[in-house]
C-alpha cells in the first residue's frame, strides 16, 4: 500500500487540477449570466462535492451512511463522463476565445454563444452515450473448430462479459440480457468476468440473482471472476450467490462438458495482486485431451500467444469495454493485442467483448453494450480430408 501512495497522491492532484479548470469555466459563465449576486461560496462548495463525490463515496464508504454514500457514488459515476468531455469541449472553447480576442470580438458577443454551444454539445454527447449503453446489440461470430465433438456438429453459445451489476446497472438492464439470450435458445451460456461492480450488496439488496436465474441453457451457465469481483472483496459471497441460482463460477477449474468439450475457467489476473495467484494456463490444461475442442474463459485478454501454445481453440474475454468512451479506445488498443472483436492467433480464435454493462457512468461513445451469439462448428478428421 505504501508503494502505491505516491501514485494515489498524483492521481488525486491531477483530478483536483482538472476539475478546478472545469469549475472555473463554469463559474465564469454563471457569473456572466447572473452578475455580482451569484453565490460564489455556495457554488464552489456544491461543485467540489459533486466533482469529488466518487472519491468521497469510495474512501468514506465505511463511515458514511448508505443513504449518502450511494447517491454520491452514482453522481460521481456520471461526473466521470462530464469531466472527460467537459475538458475536451473547454479546451476547444479556450481556443475559440483566443481567436475571438485576436479578432477584437466583444466578450458580450462570444461568451453566451460559446456557453450555449457547450451545453448543447454536452447534452447531445450524454444523450447518445446513454442510448449506446442502454440499447445493447448482439455480435454474431461463427467459427469452425477442426476437431470432433462427439455427435455435436455445432454448438450455440451466448457470451456476456462485464455486466457490472450494481448501483448504475441493475435489473432493468439485466432483463434485456435475459430475454435476448433466452430468445437465442443457446446450448451454453458463458459469463467471462465482472458480473458485479465491486460490491455484492446492491446485487443482493435488489435481488438481481432472481433476474439472472432466468438465464437457461441445456449445458448450463458458467462464469469466471473478473478484476471487479476481486476489488470488491466479496468473492466467497459472490460465488455463493451464483451457486444459489445455478451458475457455476470456475476458479482455475476445468469442466468436461458431456465428455465432448473442455471448458477452462481461469481466475482473473487480479489474483496476482489481491493474493492467492492463479495457475499458469499450460498447467491448468495439463490433463486436457487436446483432440477435443477447448474453450478458455479469461477475463483480461492478455497472453493470447500462451493460450494458443497451450492448445486452446477459443478464448473468450472482456475487461476492456473497448475504452467505453471515445477516445479511450486509443488507450485500450495500445494496452492489448486485441482490445475488441476477433483475432486468429495460430489455431486460437480469440474474441474480446466490449461488455454488456458499464463501469462508472452508464455512458458509451465509440462502443456499444453487447452480448455475443457464438456458433461453433465442429469437423472430424474424415470431414477435414474431404
Automatic annotation (TrEMBL):
Keywords: Membrane, Transmembrane, Transmembrane helix. The chain crosses the membrane at residues 7-35, 41-64, 85-104, 110-131. SUPFAM superfamilies: Metallo-dependent phosphatases. Residues 155-322 form the Calcineurin-like phosphoesterase domain. The keyword Membrane applies. It holds the Pfam family Metallophos. It comes from the Bacteria. GO terms for molecular function: hydrolase activity. CDD domains: MPP_YkuE_C. This is Metallophosphoesterase. It comes from Paenibacillus whitsoniae. The lineage of its organism: Bacteria, Bacillati, Bacillota, Bacilli, Bacillales.
Amino acid at each position: 500500500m505504501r508503494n502505491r501512495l505516491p501514485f494515489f497522491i498524483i492521481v488525486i492532484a491531477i483530478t483536483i487540477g482538472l476539475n478546478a479548470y472545469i469549475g472555473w469555466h463554469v463559474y465564469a459563465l454563471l457569473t456572466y449570466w447572473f452578475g455580482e449576486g451569484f453565490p460564489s461560496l455556495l457554488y464552489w462548495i456544491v461543485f467540489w462535492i459533486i466533482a469529488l463525490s466518487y472519491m468521497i463515496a469510495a474512501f468514506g464508504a465505511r463511515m458514511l451512511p448508505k443513504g449518502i454514500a450511494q447517491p454520491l457514488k452514482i453522481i460521481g459515476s456520471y461526473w466521470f463522463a462530464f469531466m472527460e468531455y467537459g475538458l475536451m469541449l473547454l479546451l476547444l472553447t479556450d481556443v475559440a476565445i483566443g481567436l475571438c480576442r485576436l479578432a477584437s470580438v466583444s466578450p458580450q458577443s462570444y461568451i453566451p454563444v460559446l456557453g450555449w454551444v457547450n451545453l448543447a454539445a454536452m447534452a447531445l454527447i450524454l444523450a447518445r452515450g446513454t442510448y449506446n449503453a442502454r440499447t445493447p446489440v448482439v455480435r454474431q461470430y461463427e467459427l469452425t473448430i477442426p476437431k470432433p465433438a462427439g455427435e455435436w456438429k455445432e454448438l450455440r453459445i451466448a457470451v456476456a462479459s462485464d455486466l457490472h451489476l450494481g448501483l448504475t446497472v441493475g435489473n432493468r438492464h439485466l432483463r434485456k440480457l435475459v430475454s435476448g439470450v433466452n430468445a437465442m435458445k443457446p446450448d451454453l451460456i458463458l459469463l467471462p468476468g465482472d458480473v458485479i461492480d465491486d460490491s455484492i450488496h446492491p446485487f443482493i439488496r435488489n435481488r438481481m440473482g432472481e433476474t439472472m436465474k432466468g438465464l437457461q441453457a441445456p449445458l448450463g451457465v458458467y462464469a469466471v471472476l473478473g478484476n471487479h469481483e476481486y476489488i470488491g472483496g466479496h468473492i466467497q459471497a459472490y460465488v455463493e450467490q451464483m451457486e444459489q441460482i445455478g451458475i457455476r463460477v470456475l476458479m482455475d477449474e476445468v469442466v468436461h462438458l458431456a465428455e465432448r468439450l473442455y471448458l477452462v475457467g481461469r481466475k482473473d489476473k487480479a489474483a496476482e495482486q489481491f493474493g492467492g495467484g492463479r495457475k499458469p494456463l499450460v498447467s491448468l490444461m495439463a490433463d486436457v485431451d487436446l483432440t477435443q475442442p477447448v474453450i478458455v474463459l479469461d477475463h483480461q485478454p492478455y497472453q493470447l500467444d500462451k493460450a494458443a501454445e497451450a492448445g486452446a481453440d477459443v478464448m473468450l474475454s472482456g475487461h476492456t469495454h473497448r475504452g467505453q468512451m471515445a477516445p479511450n479506445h486509443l488507450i485500450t488498443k495500445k494496452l492489448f493485442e486485441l482490445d475488441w472483436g476477433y483475432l486468429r492467433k495460430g489455431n486460437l480464435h480469440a474474441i474480446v467483448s466490449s461488455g454488456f454493462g458499464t463501469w462508472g457512468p452508464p455512458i458509451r461513445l465509440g462502443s456499444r453494450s453487447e452480448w455475443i451469439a457464438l456458433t461453433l462448428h465442429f469437423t472430424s478428421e474424415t470431414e477435414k480430408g474431404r
